[in-house]
Structures are given as C-alpha cells and as structure tokens.
Specification:
The complex is a heterodimer of chains A (about 475) and B (about 100).
Chain A lengths: L9 H19 L3 H18 L5 E3 L4 E3 L1 H27 L6 H18 L3 H19 L6 H32 L4 H8 L5 H18 L7 H8 L2 H26 L4 H23 L5 H22 L1 H28 L16 H4 L1 H15 L5 H15 L3 H27 L13 H19 L2 H11 L1
Antiparallel strand pairs in A: 1-2
Helix pairs in contact in A: 1-2, 1-4, 2-3, 3-4, 3-10, 3-13, 3-18, 3-19, 4-5, 4-10, 5-6, 5-10, 6-8, 6-9, 7-10, 8-10, 8-11, 9-10, 9-12, 10-12, 10-13, 11-12, 11-17, 12-13, 12-16, 12-17, 13-15, 13-16, 13-18, 13-19, 15-17, 15-18, 16-17, 16-18
Chain B lengths: L3 H21 L3 H26 L3 H30 L14
Helix pairs in contact in B: 1-2, 2-3
Classes of the chains: A mainly alpha (about 475), B mainly alpha (about 100).
Chain lengths: ~475, ~100
Amino acid sequence: MDITIIKPILPEIVMAALACVVLILELFIHKKETIGVFAILAVAAVSYVIPQSFGSAFNGMFISDGYSVFFKFIFFINLILAVLISIRYLKIERSEFGEYYSLMMFATLGMMIMASATDLIVLYLGLELMALSTYILAGFIRHDRRSNEAALKYFFLGAFSSAILLYGITMIYALTGTTNILAIASQLQGKMTTQLILAIVFLVVAFGFKIALAPFHMWTPDVYEGAPTSITAFMSVGPKAAAFAALGRVFTTGLIDFAPDWRGILIALSILTMAVGNILAIQQSNIKRMLAYSSIAHAGYAVIGVIAGGAEGLSAMMNYLFIYAFMNIGAFAVVIMLRVEGVKGEELEHYRGLAKTHPLAAVLMLIFMFSLTGIPPTGGFIGKFYLFKAAVGAGYAWLAVVAVVFSVISAYFYLRVVMYMYMHEPEGEPAALATSTPLGLALLITTIMVIVLGVYPSPFLAFARLAIG
Amino acid sequence: MVPLHWYLWLGSLVFCIGMFGFLTRRNVIIMFLSIELMLNGVNISLVALSHYMQDLRGQVLTLFVIAVAAAEAAIGLAIVIALFRNKPTTHLDEIKEMKG
C-alpha cells in the first residue's frame, strides 16, 4: 500500500494512537500529573507531523490545508493550556483520573477532524467524537450534582442539535446526490429552492447550538457553571473554534452561491447573540456564569468574520478565535486559582479586595478583563479591530457600529470585576490561592501572549492571512 | 414500486414526532427516546435516497449514524445514572441546581 495517501490524516492518526496510549498509561501510573505531561508531549509529537501533512486524501473527503492547520494550532493551544490549569484543580475537586486527559485528547482529535473535513460525513463524525468526549468531561466531577446536571443538559441539547445537523445533511444529499462540500456547490449551480432554504436553516441551527449563538444558547450558562472550571475553559474555546471552522468551510465553499440568503440569517443571529450575551451578563453574580454569557457575546462578534466573508473576513475570524483562546483561558485560570479546599471562589464577592490580598492575581485578572473588553494595548483590541475592519470593508459598517456599541456595554460587567478587586476592601481572613507550577506556567503564557498580540500582532496576523492563502 | 417521496414523508414524520417529543416531554428517558426517533427518521430518508439515487454515500452515513447513536446511548445513560445516584429523579423540572 502506498503510504503517501494517508499523509494528510497522519496528525489525526498520531493523536488517536497517543490518546489510546494515555488511556492505557492510566492503569500503571499513579501520579496523574505525569499523564498530563504526557498529553502535552503528545501534542508536541502531533505538531511535529503537521508540516508534512499538507494535501487531500480519501477522494477529497479530508483535506489538510492552511485553514485547517491554523485551527489545529488553536486546538493544540487550547489542549495544552487546559491540561496545565487542570493538574492542581483536579486534586482539589477529588476527581483525579487519567481518563480525563485521554478524553481531552479525543475531543481535540474530533475538533481536528472537523476542521479538516471536506465531506459532510467526515464532518459529522468529527463533531460527534468531539461532542461525546466533551459530554463526559462536563460531568467529570461525579459526586457534584451541578456537574451531573451540566453534563445532562449539554448531552441533551448537543444530541438534539446533531440530529438537526443530520437532517440538514440529508436534505443537501437529496438535492445534490453528494455529501462532498466542494461538489455541493457545483451540483447546486446556484439554483435556489425551498428545500435548500430549509437545509441552510437546519445547518445554521445545528452549528448555532455548538457555537452558542442566541437563541440556541440556553444550555451555555448552566453547562459552563456546572462543569469543572478547567473543562469550562476547554470547551469555551475548542469546540467553539471547531464549529466555526466547519461553519466557515461549509458556508463559504459549499454554499457560497447562496451567500445573500445565509448572510441575512447570520446577521440577525449575530446581533441577537451580542445583545443577549452582553445584556444578560450584566446581572450575573457568579463569575463562571458571567464568563459563559461573555463567551456567547464573543461568538456573536466572531460570526461577523464569516458574514464579511472572503479571505479578509475569514482571517479576521481566525485571528479573533486565536486571541480569544489566550484571554479566555487566562481568565478561567485566575478563577481556578481562587478555588481552594472549602471555598468555591466563583462568586463575585470572592473577588472583593483581591488587589490587597493577592496583588499579582488581581493584576492578571485585570489584564484579561481589559482584553475581553477590547481595550488597547491588549490582544482583545486587535482581534476586534480587524474583525470590525473586515465588516466595514465588506460593506457592513452598520453591523460594526452595532458590535462596537455592544462591546461598550460589555465594559460594564468586565470592569465590575476590576472594581471589586481594586475599589473594595477585603472582608475577613484572605483565603489562600491554589497556585502550582503548571498553573503559573499557563498564566505566564496567556499573559505574555495577550500583551504581545496587543503590542506586536503583525506576525500572527500574517500567519492567518497566509493560512487562508 | 413505492415512490421515493412516500419514504421521505415517512422519514420527516418520524423526525417531527421525535422533535415534538423532545420539546414537550420532561422525562429524561422519554426525551432520550425522542432523540433516537429523530435519528431514525434521518436514517429512513437517507437509505431511501441512497437506494433511488443508486449511490452508496447515504447508506454509509446511515451506518455511521447507527454506530454513533449506540455510543451516544451509552454515554447518555451513564450520565443519567451518575445523576440518579446523587438525586433520584428522572424528571427534568426537578433537576435545577443552577438558575439565572
């Protein structure tokens, strides 16, 4: 057999094999940190294979191109940072099992397949692999009722959305006789039919569930609050980015001839998402819940990139997700630091006077909150800037204005955390922080990247532009 | 021979029954059954289309859907059992630790 035909899928094969190795290692290794380190080494091994992987395989069902590789790097960053912040946290939650890391790797594998899929069947399989692993991870703290509930809600709405996705795929298959995303465009020949509108709506709904676009966001706050914090960080970036990769691929290649039709739907959803995310976040007192609404709002911003379309819009969306990975996981890393034995550390009250008791943690949270708001010189500003620039360039200046208005509203709840930390006096005995070397490393990486991306973003922007080609 | 659109109507009917059940019932097991109905509605349509178009893709996808549905059932029931150990109920309205 010719080995070169499997070359494009080699990173995925390596990832799958190493995830199985991690699963077996769990039986022999009692120090679970070692398994976490092994998961990070596995990512290094997979990244090593990626540069030789470019090309298409299996009759054009699977492709490794710049677009998918860029997303794969987002998934790797997501996995590495999530593993780093998990190591101490799992001990505190008394849920230290090696399967945790293996499931994270399988979820990442699913995301990689989604980003690379050029066939709807492969896309579906990648999506399910990712989703099934994340359902388990959301319920990983088995003795915590909130974690069970999060897993149940995530499972039901996730399974419902994948059934809808399948029906959308069926309709497209009925219309075109193919499931290949590239062939769909040539088969449809720009002919608009009622069934096609229905198929587009079904696909938007299914991806909307995964990305958490309003009005399909209802599961997000509960799931993000109940799931282990490290997993909340993991799934607020990875699965979201993977769904964006698939959305971008399906809509801007397979259904590009119908752009005016799906653009209208996406614009409406984007505005609604920004409104719901930013306005409902204001009344949250639980910080994980607030970050859940914030992640809904950020999905609303990122969709603008797909609406703007073209190389400009897509690369702006990719950049945004890249920057978002660092700032969001950074914020969750600080939340995790406040979780110690006996103290949940999730309520806004716990941040009262943090600047006096733990100045460094307060400064880090300040940087991430500024970045999430989009205040220069942080990465969040650059991400939003290029996204809105792409929208203006594509003739959607009014949409950019709406997005700016909503990010001004978002300043209220992000900066409220800062206010609690700096303007309030600490109450009672200050609780200790759950610091550890891996967590410190994750915070160091995220802080440096958020600032570097804000001050000197050009190499990263050029990378995304190059990836689009 | 039975015309294709009969199968497609049957598929969409099963899908819609599943969707209706999912949205109206509040027992987690019944909701789970409804999702399986939705998937099987898709399967009927896919196999019928595949047969009439003389193309194997639809049947391949059906096989994958069945396999994934089995995995989904295992995980879904495991989650329900994990929940049941902490709170013995299968009614969704009683599962409400988080609000807001």
